[in-house]
C-alpha cells in the first residue's frame, strides 16, 4: 500500500484483486474519486481504467467470497477478505443502473481500511437522504406501483442505508391529507410512487403544508409563497409520467431511485391558479384548455381502460375538433434570457435556470410595492380569439408519447411559463401540428400557432365574459374594448375545462402566476450526451482525463 504525502488527506493506493488479477486501486480524497486500473493488461486487450466519483457510489459492503483458481479447483490459500462497491452505471437513453465491483485481498486489515475509507467518503456526501416518507398509489398507471416499489426500489434504498416510512394510499387525496398531519420535518424527502396525478397530490400536500406552517394564505394570488426545501422524488408508475420524463429523461423506476439515493436536487417552477381570490391548484407541467382539457374530461370516464385511455380519448377529441372562444391576457417575461424558439434545451446545470436563482428573493422584496415590476403595469397583452388549444407549460412536458414535449425549449426553473396558443385551423393542419410533437420539426412554425414566454396570464371564455362572471380585474377591463370592437361570432357554445397536470379545474376563468423555483425534486435535469456509453466507466474515461 502506498500513501504519498501531500494534500490534506493522503490518497489510498493498493494492489487489490479483481477476479483473478491484481489491479491498482486508488481512492483520491481531494477529487472524491475511486479508480482502478489493470497495471498489466493481457496482451491484445486494451487496459481499462475505471473511475467512479464518490457522488455516484451507492454503497460499500464487506463481502464473503470464496476464491476459485482459473482451473476451477479450489485453491489452498489464506482466507480472502473482500468488499463490494455499488455504483451508478449510465446505460442507454438516460437510464441509470446499479453496477458492482468486488475487490479482495488476503490482508484483513487492508480490506477493513478500504471499507472504512469508502464509508467515510460516503458520509461526506451531505445532500443524500437518510430518511424518506414514501407514498405508493397502488392503482396508478398499470396498477404496478406496489410491485415496482417492493421489487426494484426498496432493495436499493436498503442497500444505501436509507430508512423509509411507507404509506400505501387507500383513496385519492390520502397522501395530500396525510402531509398536513405528519411531522414532515423529520424527513429528508418525500417519495411518490405513481403518475403525474400522484405527484401533483404530494406536491399540493407539501407546498400547502409549508404555507400553512409559515402563515401564508394560499387564497391570496399575490402572496409570496415560501419555498419548499424538502425534496420530492418520483418513482414513475403512472400513465404519462411527464414530470419524471422531463426532469430525468426517462421513466424508469431504478434510474429515479438512484437519483434519489445520490441526493440530486433540481429546482422546479410552480404555477398557482386562482379564480376570484380563491386558490384552485398548482401546476408544474401542462395547464391546458381545449384539446388537452377535452381529452382529460373524456379519459376520466375511461380509467378502466388503463394507460391507453389517453390515446383513445385523444383520437376521439381530435375527430370532434372543437374550438373555443375566449380572451387570454398575459404578462410577457421581460428579463428572462431564453426564448421558446431557442434551439438550446434546458439540461443538467442549465445556465438560464442558474441565473434565475435570485428571482424568489426579488419577488419577496417586491411584495407589497404598488407598482413593482412583477405587476407589469402596462406591459400586459391581450389576445382574443378562437382556440383549439391553450397550453401553458412550466417545463417541456416531454413524455414517452412526445419525447421533446409541447415546448421543447421550456426551462424547469427559469421562473417563466411558455404559453402556446393554437388558433382555430383545419383538422389537417391540427394533425400536422400534433405530428410535430413526435418528430424533429418545429411545432411553432405554423401561422395558427403562437408561443410566448410569460410570467402571468388570465383567461376568460367568451361564454363567461357574456355572462359577466369571468376574472374581474386587469384582463377584464381590457377585454371590454375588444368585445365592442369585434362582432359576436358563432363558435362552440359550451366551455372546455382546464387540464391541470392531469387533474380537472373547477373554473374555466382563471388567473395564473409562476413561482420561480418554489420546490425541488430528487433529479438533476436531463443529462447532455449521456446516451449510449457510461461516462465514468472503462476506457471512455481515459479520454476525459
Ligand atoms: C398523430 C399522432 C400525434 C400524437 C401527438 C401526441 C402528443 C402528446 C403530447 C403529450 C403531452 C403530455 C403533457 C403532459 C400532461 C400531463 O400533465 C397529464 C397528466 O399525466 N397527462 C395528460 O393530460 C395526458 C395527455 C395525453 C395526450 C395524448 C394525446 C394523444 C393524441 C392522439 C391524437 C391522434 C390523432 C390521430 C389522427 C389520425
Ligand atoms: N388508493 C387510491 N385509490 C384511488 N385513487 C387514488 C389512490 N391513491 C391515489 N389516487 C389518485 O389517483 C390519481 C391518478 O394516479 P396516478 O397519477 O398515480 O396515475 P395515472 O393517472 O394513471 O398517471 P398519470 O397521472 O401519469 O397520467 C391521482 O390523482 C391520485 O390522487
Ligand atoms: Ca419554467
UniProtKB/TrEMBL annotation:
The keyword Nucleotide-binding applies. It comes from the Eukaryota. Keywords: ATP-binding, Calcium, Kinase, Nucleotide-binding, Transferase. Residues 127-277 form the DAGKc domain. One of its GO terms (cellular component) is membrane. GO terms for molecular function: ATP binding; ceramide kinase activity. The keyword Thylakoid does not apply. Gene3D superfamilies: 2.60.200.40, Probable inorganic polyphosphate/atp-NAD kinase, domain 1 (3.40.50.10330). PANTHER family: CERAMIDE KINASE, SPHINGOSINE KINASE. This is Ceramide kinase. It comes from Chelydra serpentina (Snapping turtle). The lineage of its organism: Eukaryota, Metazoa, Chordata, Craniata, Vertebrata.
Amino acid at each position: 500500500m502506498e500513501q504519498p504525502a501531500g494534500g490534506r488527506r493522503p490518497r489510498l493506493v493498493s494492489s487489490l484483486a479483481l477476479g483473478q488479477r491484481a489491479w491498482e486501486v486508488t481512492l483520491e480524497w481531494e477529487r472524491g474519486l475511486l479508480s482502478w486500473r489493470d497495471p498489466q493488461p493481457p496482451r491484445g486487450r486494451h487496459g481499462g481504467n475505471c473511475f467512479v466519483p464518490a457522488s455516484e457510489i451507492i454503497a460499500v459492503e464487506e463481502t464473503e467470497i470464496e476464491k476459485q483458481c482459473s482451473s476451477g479447483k479450489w485453491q489452498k490459500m489464506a482466507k480472502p477478505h473482500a468488499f463490494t462497491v455499488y455504483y451508478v452505471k449510465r446505460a442507454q437513453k438516460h437510464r441509470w443502473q446499479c453496477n458492482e465491483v468486488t475487490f479482495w485481498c488476503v490482508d484483513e486489515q487492508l480490506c477493513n481500511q478500504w471499507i472504512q475509507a469508502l464509508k467515510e467518503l460516503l458520509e461526506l456526501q451531505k445532500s443524500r437522504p437518510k430518511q424518506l416518507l414514501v407514498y405508493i398509489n397502488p392503482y396508478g398507471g398499470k396498477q404496478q406501483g406496489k410491485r415496482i416499489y417492493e421489487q426494484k426500489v426498496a432493495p436499493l434504498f436498503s442497500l444505501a442505508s436509507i430508512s423509509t416510512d411507507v404509506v400505501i394510499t387507500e383513496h385519492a387525496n390520502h397522501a395530500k391529507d396525510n402531509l398536513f398531519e405528519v411531522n414532515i420535518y423529520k424527513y429528508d424527502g418525500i417519495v411518490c410512487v405513481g403518475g403525474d396525478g400522484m405527484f401533483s397530490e404530494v406536491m399540493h400536500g407539501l407546498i400547502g403544508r409549508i404555507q400553512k406552517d409559515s402563515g401564508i394564505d394560499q387564497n391570496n394570488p399575490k402572496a409570496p409563497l415560501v419555498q419548499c426545501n424538502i425534496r420530492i422524488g418520483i418513482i414513475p408508475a403512472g400513465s404519462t409520467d411527464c414530470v419524471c420524463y422531463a426532469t430525468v429523461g426517462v421513466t424508469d423506476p431504478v434510474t429515479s431511485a438512484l437519483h434519489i439515493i445520490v441526493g440530486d436536487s433540481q429546482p422546479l417552477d410552480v404555477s398557482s391558479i386562482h379564480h376570484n381570490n380563491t386558490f384552485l391548484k398548482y401546476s408544474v407541467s401542462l395547464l391546458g384548455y381545449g384539446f388537452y382539457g377535452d381529452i382529460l374530461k373524456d379519459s376520466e370516464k375511461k380509467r378502466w381502460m388503463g394507460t391507453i385511455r389517453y390515446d383513445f380519448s385523444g383520437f376521439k377529441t381530435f375527430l370532434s375538433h372543437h374550438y373555443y372562444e375566449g380572451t387570454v391576457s398575459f404578462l410577457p417575461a421581460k428579463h428572462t434570457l431564453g426564448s421558446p424558439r431557442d434551439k438550446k434545451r434546458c439540461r443538467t446545470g442549465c445556465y438560464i435556470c442558474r441565473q434565475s436563482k435570485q428571482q424568489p428573493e426579488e419577488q419577496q422584496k417586491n411584495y407589497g410595492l404598488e407598482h413593482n415590476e412583477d405587476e407589469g403595469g402596462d406591459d400586459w397583452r391581450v389576445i382574443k380569439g378562437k382556440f383549439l388549444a391553450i397550453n401553458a407549460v412550466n417545463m417541456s412536458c416531454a413524455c414517452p408519447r412526445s419525447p421533446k414535449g409541447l415546448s421543447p425549449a421550456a426551462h424547469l426553473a427559469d421562473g417563466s411559463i411558455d404559453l402556446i396558443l393554437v388558433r382555430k385551423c383545419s383538422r389537417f393542419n391540427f394533425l400536422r401540428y400534433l405530428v410535430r410533437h413526435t418528430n424533429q420539426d418545429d411545432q411553432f412554425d405554423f401561422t395558427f400557432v403562437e408561443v410566448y414566454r410569460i410570467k402571468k396570464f388570465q383567461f376568460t371564455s367568451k361564454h363567461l365574459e357574456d355572462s359577466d362572471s369571468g376574472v374581474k380585474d386587469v384582463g377584464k377591463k381590457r377585454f371590454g374594448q375588444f368585445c365592442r370592437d369585434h362582432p359576436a361570432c358563432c363558435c362552440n357554445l359550451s366551455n372546455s375545462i382546464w387540464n391541470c397536470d392531469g387533474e380537472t379545474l373547477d373554473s374555466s376563468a382563471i388567473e395564473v402566476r409562476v413561482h420561480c423555483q418554489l420546490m425541488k425534486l430528487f433529479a438533476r435535469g436531463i443529462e447532455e450526451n449521456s446516451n449510449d456509453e457510461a461516462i465514468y466507466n472503462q476506457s471512455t474515461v481515459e479520454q476525459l482525463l
